[in-house]
Amino acid sequence: MEFEMENGRRAIGELCAKIEERGRRTLLSFPDFIDLAVAFPERIFRNIFQMFYDMMHSYIDLGVDEYPDDPESIKYVPYDCSRLLEEGTDRPFFGDRLFVNRLMEHISSFRRGIRQNRIYIFEGPHGCGKSTFLNNVLMKFEKYSETDEGASYETVWRLNRKLLGNGTDQTAQLLVEQLRNIVDRSAGEFKPPESAPAEFAGKQWLEIACPSHDSPLLLIPKAYRKDFFEALIADRSFKHKLFSHKQYEWVFKDSPCTICQSLYHALLDILDSPSKVFEMVFARRTLFNRRLGTGISVFNPGDRPDRMNIVSDDHIQNQLNTLLMDSNRVRYLYSRYANTNNGIYAVMDIKDHNKERFGNLHGIISEGVHKVDSIEENVNSLFFALMNPEDRENISDTQSFADRITYVKIPYVLDYNTEIKIYKNIFGNQIQKYFLPRVLENFAKIIISSRLNPQSTAMAEWIPDPGHYRNYCDRNLLLLKMDIYAGVIPAWLSEEDRKNFTAKKRRKIIAESESEGDRGFTGRDSIRMFNEFYQAYMKKDKPITMAMLNIYFKKHCCAEGPVAPDFFDALSALYDYTILQEVKEALYDYNEENISRQIQNYLFAVNFEIGQTQKCHYTNEELKITEELFDAIEGKVLGNRSPAEKRKAFRKEAQNIYASKTLAREILIEGKHVTQTGLYQSLHDRYVHNLKENVLDPFLKNDNFRGAVKDYMTESFKTYDKRIREDVSLLMGNLRARFGYSENSAKEVCLYVIDNGLAKKFTEQ
Ligand SMILES: [Zn+2]
Question: Which pLDDT score, from 0 to 100, does residue 202 have?
């Protein structure tokens, strides 16, 4: 028995040691805090806006820019928000590329230092997931604040009784104070003296935490801050930022709360020494805890407003009065808003009680101060609200602070990749394998098309004649727009339209998304429809095809449905075009080394007369300069039927460019390898393009080709000649490896291409 008791005691002892280790709330003396500021200035010199910015960036990863060298790029990049909004949440939120780019743009202002007197309203229709979004962000903010990287510090006063000179014999003084307090009360109601004296007498000091969570940095008198930090900060690059960036203005301009300020002055009067005052200043980690309502306050529409907005504490007030021997110097009084100073104040849907709450924010947001009794309280909070579009009328009487509101639209998903992610999250990743490649994507595209504006000024300005693309795209160019929203510039765009796709036009198109996604199939609709479709068509042995998609949606979207009828036809046409490209790509025997060697030899050979023999500097091959050597490349680049004079002219032009630019400048001066030069690149691109374009022709003429595809992986396949077996095997292998087909679906898609004469359909344009 005794032994067990020993065990218990030891276990608890160990537990407590661990808890202490983890306790991040230990107090730091002011000098220790300043040491920390020198060691980690980026963390310590940080207000709520800067901290929120850092939090977002610590959880969000920048994806790979698909077009890094695009001179017209508007940095519409893929952010990976899975750590912020999905992992470890009760319910993941899938933000599409448009929303996340919009969000990050707003967040970037948090470190640009524009004074943040504003409220951010996330506005989106029912079921867009805005509350899930905000809940997940706030949860990750709390988590971040618990890490070293996310540390933030607030002021705590430790008023040392001995140092303040009223050591042991204070009872009489205290009673006088209390009496005076009682008499002072205008209401005249009598309260018996609190238990303060007894409790107080046992403690060495009175601890008061700043109710506004002020940084201890603010206790350095404003007049001395510049000199102090100038001498203190060693990190030159940080010092430069601190003194010149707008985001750090608060360090020099902000004042501590009235409680800290009056305490500071009172103590200075009593102690007559700033250093003694600073001995009573401590720092501790700020606790952000939504459930406890510290640092983060979240209000639901049904939460009744507190009866008393002003908070005081007679107990603490009495002790202060005793210690400072004066009841008027420090008034321990603050409002509920103080709690989220340097924190986050969030109003879920603006309705019911939240209407009033929202209205009350007016003064605070525009002035950054709030009157508590006769005292002015600073409130610098990050204000968030959520709103349904139909609730806009609830804030119509707050017109006066309309310019303090930033709306961040959070519509239904408009990026098909994100839409697919949502299906996969609900139905599992395996759904992909029951679809032919691209068909799942097309399901998402149909859903998204219903959410877009049918007409787009920005798209019309960019491409005035959409008829040009009737073989790949719908009349309203929704398919093109969707690709752009997903960050894709499709390959079928003409050279000219691609050139015209300027940064300005891109911005305009992306901006249009803010007025979309509030109609069409809702998030809930699309999940229900996907479920219905998937249950009906999912078969173990037969992948889901475009034809099935068309049957299903035509049943659901009659003439006046949310999807335009021509959209289905266009989607099928684009699908046909895309798989044709895939088959060509897969059939093309990509011998890059061979192609590269041929082009290098050609570039070298154009400088010599026919009949000579020369050793190529680039490939070290002995070249017999013949018409055939030139023909091999020119036929590929210009087409086999190009006339001789056209080839001669081309050759001469190539020789000119080679001599004047490629060799003289790029190779000799800029030190480029021949394969990095402009001429090489352009020849290479045209060569490869034409190779691929015509790769199917010989096969389509061969009657055995279809049969070999059909019999692939069966006994009969062996009866075909070696050449065709090799080609078909290459085709099937590449379709699987590069485009995600299975053995069966690769066969299926090839037969589809052959039987529907797709090669012919797309060359006859
Ligand atoms: Zn304070």
Answer: 56
Domain count, the chain: 3
Do 457 and 580 lie in a common domain?
yes
Dihedral over Cα of 523, 528, 531, 533: its sign = negative
Confidence of residue 8 (pLDDT cuts 50, 70, 90): confident
Statement to judge: residues 732 and 651 lie in one domain: no
Cα of 318 vs centre of ligand 1, distance in Å, is 18
Q: Let me know whether 728 and 678 are in one domain.
A: no
Name the nearest CA neighbour of 348 among 125, 130, 142, 92.
130
Of 554, 587, 620, the last residue of a domain is 587
pLDDT tens digit string along 328-347?
789 999 999 999 999 999 99
Instruction: Please state the φ and ψ torsions of residue 307, each to the nearest 5 degrees.
Output: -65, -45
Q: Per-residue pLDDT tens for 428-487? A: 999 999 999 999 999 999 999 999 999 999 999 999 999 989 888 999 999 999 999 999
User: Do residues 426 and 536 share a domain?
Assistant: yes
- Give me the residue label for tokens 């050609």: 602
| Final residue in a domain of this structure, among 663, 687, 711 | 687
Tokens 């962000």 sit on residue:
137
In a domain, 458, yes or no: yes
Distance (angstroms) between ligand 1 centre and the Cα of 256 equals 5
pLDDT at 273: 92
Residue 249: pLDDT over 60: yes
Measured in Å, residue 563 CA sits from the centre of ligand 1 at: 58
Beta strand 333-335 pairing with 613-615: unpaired
CA 213 / ligand 1 centre spacing (Å): 6
Range of the domain at 632: 592-687
Residues 620 and 679 in one domain: yes
445 and 513 share one domain: yes
List own/partner pairs for 398-407 with CB under 8 A and 24 or more apart. Answer: 398/358, 398/359, 398/362, 400/362, 401/362, 401/365, 401/366, 404/117, 404/118, 404/119, 404/365, 404/366, 405/118, 405/119, 405/121, 406/106, 406/118, 406/119, 406/120, 406/121, 407/121, 407/123
Q: What percent of the chain clears pLDDT 90, i.e. is strictly above it? A: 65
The region of weakest confidence among 236-245, 371-380, 662-671 is 371-380
Q: How high is the mean pLDDT of the chain?
A: 88
275 within a domain of the structure (yes/no) = no
Identify whether 82 is part of a domain.
no
* Residue 334 CA to ligand 1 centre (angstroms): 10
712 domain-assigned = yes
Query: Separation of 234 CA from ligand 1 center, angstroms?
Result: 27
What is the edge-to-edge ordering of all strands in the sheet holding 205-209? 28-29, 281-285, 153-160, 205-209
375 C-alpha to ligand 1 centroid (Å):
13
**What's the pLDDT at 136?**
98
Q: Cα(341) to centroid of ligand 1, in Å?
A: 10
CA 261 to ligand 1 center in whole angstroms: 7
Q: How far apart are CA 765 and CA 763, in angstroms?
A: 6
Quickly state the pLDDT bin for 366 (edges 50, 70, 90): confident
- Cβ atoms of 264 and 277 closer than 8 Å: yes
**Ligand 1 centroid vs 716 CA: distance in angstroms?**
86
Among 400-404, 546-550, 623-627, the range scoring the smallest mean pLDDT is 400-404
Ligand 1 geometric centre to CA of 371 (Å): 15
Are residue 664 and residue 707 in the same domain, yes or no? no
Both 517 and 433 in one domain: the answer is yes
Å from CA of 357 to ligand 1 middle:
24
